[in-house]
Amino acid sequence: MALLEVHKMSVNFGGIKPVSELDLQIEEGELIGLIGPNGAGKTTVFNLLTGVYTPTEGSITFNGERIDRLKTHQIVKKGITRTFQNIRLFKQMTVIDNVKVAFNNRLKYSPLEGILHLPRYKKEEAWLEEEAMKLLKIFELDKYAYELSMNLPYGKQRKLEIARALAGSPKLLLLDEPAAGMNPNETNELMQTIKLIRDQFNMTILLIEHDMNLVMSICERLVVIDYGMVIARGTPSEIQNNEKVIGAYLGQA
Ligand SMILES: Nc1ncnc2c1ncn2[C@@H]1O[C@H](COP(=O)(O)OP(=O)(O)O)[C@@H](O)[C@H]1O
Ligand SMILES: [Mg+2]
């Protein structure tokens, strides 16, 4: 069984179906691109996978378990984390604290121990700091660890979001247009970092992008959606020459 198995998943908002009978399988360790024109339903797929919306039909099975009726925090605990199309950091918190809070549900000390600064708390704090710093290093953000996240340049804020999503060792990482608003250099660098995360951590990644050229270089498989339905699946070279895909992109305003 694949790590993620989505079977005929639909969502209906008063007659509008942003996602319709979507099938998707992702094997452990795969880096898959979910692409499609603006408004195709890509972000809605993420909202369904993470419990923001509940599918009106179909099923989502993750790691052998049905998760389509679970709440977001329960799904996070099962090992699915995400980033957002629009950055959602704690702006008034430091860079490292943004990562540390994401580790929260792995902590073992009780609130009372925390208040009293008992030994277990101190040990866990040191561990937390170390783990957060390791993640920051991967994204070359360690030298900004104690700055407020809102003071980071835009491209680095995007990287911080990914670092935070990796806290707590998720099994599946969902990235929603992580390169949005970046310049071509930053974008290239980010794509290489995403590939590195997959290779180093054997992470499974589903990457949303509307610019298909961007994901061609790093994804081994692409799923293309338009009007909430899968219109093509295949390797980048298969997708590049697919008439339905070309049509969907040309049809965009
Ligand atoms: N809660 C909602 N209620 C009604 N329509 C929605 C809702 N969420 C998304 N949609 C619609 O679903 C369609 C797909 O949106 P979205 O998933 O954001 O597209 P993409 O991420 O591919 O650009 C859009 O037409 C959007 O307006
Ligand atoms: Mg979107």
TrEMBL record:
SMART domains: AAA. One of its GO terms (cellular component) is plasma membrane. One of its GO terms (biological process) is L-isoleucine import across plasma membrane. Transmembrane segments: none annotated. Residues 1-252 form the ABC transporter domain. It comes from the Bacteria. One of its GO terms (molecular function) is ATP binding. Keywords: ATP-binding, Nucleotide-binding, Transport. Signal peptide: none annotated. This is ABC transporter ATP-binding protein.
